[in-house]
Design brief:
Helix 9 packs antiparallel against helix 10. With 413 residues, this protein is α+β, with helices and mostly antiparallel strands. The strands form two sheets. A five-stranded mixed sheet has the order 2-4-5-7-6, with helices on one face. A two-stranded antiparallel ribbon has the order 1-3. It is built from 13 helices and seven strands. A hairpin with a 2-residue loop joins strand 4 and strand 5. 30% of the residues are buried.
Length: 413
């Protein structure tokens, strides 16, 4: 018997449903089963009084209630719930009109209201209000409207007392059974919830562990890339010291600075708390220091660098090309802007508005940077290629010294 109860209770339940949905579906099936059984027994009770009409009506309603199972099997769970509650309201109201008030058929409204509070989701305020107001409205109609024209006059006072006893016992049993079923289902619901919570905790721990391992691995990758690039920088330094030709030596220094600008990015990412973004303002400060040491001291010129840097965070896809662009522009500033000057000033600005990053490099030199960096030079080719990679716009101007402006939109990854 218990096995049949469990099978009927689980009709329409699927493995991918959450615990709350499973609880409501099972309760709808259980209410359907209890009320169908109650109408079946009530029909035979009325048959014992020779009431064939009410017998047929109750047995038909009992069969109709089984539609609740069918709706749940079809996945129409909300329709199943509404159908069961509305049919119960209508049949109880009809028998309140059909029998004398002493039969106390209105008792069945109370287990019905109890069922509403567990079958309807409280988040669905309209459905909850409807199913609470419906039985209250019908009870009011039963108590206030004259329904003597519908009342069956064939019931004797003795039969009305027997109906009262049956309704009282059936009503009490229904309430008791509903409370038992609901408590049992709540226990199972809580058990399922605890299971889901435990599974979720385990999954979160696994994800956290996997994420930690990936972060460690990514940090190690950045560290190794930085070390490898540092080795290349060192080799280029050693090579440049052994070259007497100044032009060839300058080419090696330029190549070294390009590699060094990328190495700095990986060093920042390795040392950063997050492995995805770096504070690009801090990066520019260090990059400027390295380039200054490479050129200004070597050329024995007093070049001041002013930095106006906002707190802008870039991921590696934007940081590396930006770093290389700054390296190229600064290198050209040091090499060509101050040829006829003993001192100079370079101003670097960085800001971000919404998702648009703006970078500018301005010097107060001779304004001949465009002549030095012609479209066919390696430096200009590198800059144009990197600007295209950033999907940005770059502009050179030579009104007061030379100014380079770069704007690009940082897309979320």
């Amino acid at each position: 018997m218990l096995e049949i109860w469990n099978k009927l209770s689980n009709l329409g339940v699927k493995s991918n449903y959450d615990a709350d949905s499973v609880r409501r579906i099972k309760l709808t099936n259980q209410v359907t089963l209890v009320t169908a059984s109650a109408y079946l027994l009530a029909g035979f009770n009325n048959l014992s009084f020779g009431e064939y009409f009410s017998f047929l009506l109750l047995e038909g309603t009992s069969a109709l209630m089984l539609m609740g199972f069918i709706f749940n099997l079809q996945g129409k769970h909300s329709i199943a719930t509404h159908f069961v509650l509305i049919v119960n309201n209508l049949i109880i109201t009809f028998f309140n009109f059909y029998t004398h008030i002493t039969a106390s058929t209105f008792i069945f409204y109370f287990p019905l209201i109890l069922a509403v509070s567990f079958l309807i989701d409280f988040k669905n305020k309209k459905a909850m209000l409807f199913h609470f107001l419906l039985p209250m409205t019908l009870i009011t109609l039963v108590m206030t409207v004259d329904h003597s024209f519908l009342e069956n006059k064939n019931f004797t006072p003795e039969q009305n007392r027997q109906l009262f006893a049956f309704d009282l016992i059936a009503g009490a049993l229904s309430i008791g059974l509903f409370i038992f079923v609901i408590n049992k289902e709540n226990e199972e619901h809580n058990s399922r919830l605890m299971q889901q919570i435990e599974e979720r905790k385990k999954n979160e721990e696994k994800i956290a562990q996997a994420l930690k391992e990936k972060e460690i691995l990514l940090a190690e990758i950045h560290h190794r890339v930085k070390n490898n690039l540092a080795i290349i920088v060192s080799l280029l330094n050693l090579q440049s010291e052994k070259i007497a030709d100044e032009f060839a030596k300058s080419l090696l220094i330029e190549s070294r600075n390009r590699v060094m600008s990328m190495a700095l990015i990986h060093d920042k990412l390795y040392r950063n708390e997050t492995l995805s973004n770096i504070n690009f303002g801090f990066y520019i400060t260090e990059l400027v220091h390295e380039i200054h040491n490479s050129y200004a001291l070597l050329m024995k010129k007093n070049v001041e660098v002013k930095l106006h840097l906002s707190e802008v965070y870039l991921n590696v896809n934007y940081a590396i090309p930006c770093g290389l662009i700054i390296n190229e522009v600064l290198t050209n500033c040091y090499k060509h802007a101050f040829l006829d000057q003993a001192e100079g000033c370079i101003t670097i600005s960085l800001k971000k508005e919404n998702n648009t990053v703006s970078l500018s490099v301005q010097d107060n030199g001779n304004g001949k940077l465009n002549e030095a960096v012609n479209p066919e030079s390696l430096g200009m080719e590198v800059i144009q290629s990197l600007v295209k990679q950033l999907e940005g716009k770059a502009v050179f101007s030579t009104q007061t010294g030379t100014r380079f402006e770069l704007n690009f939109v940082q897309k979320e990854i």
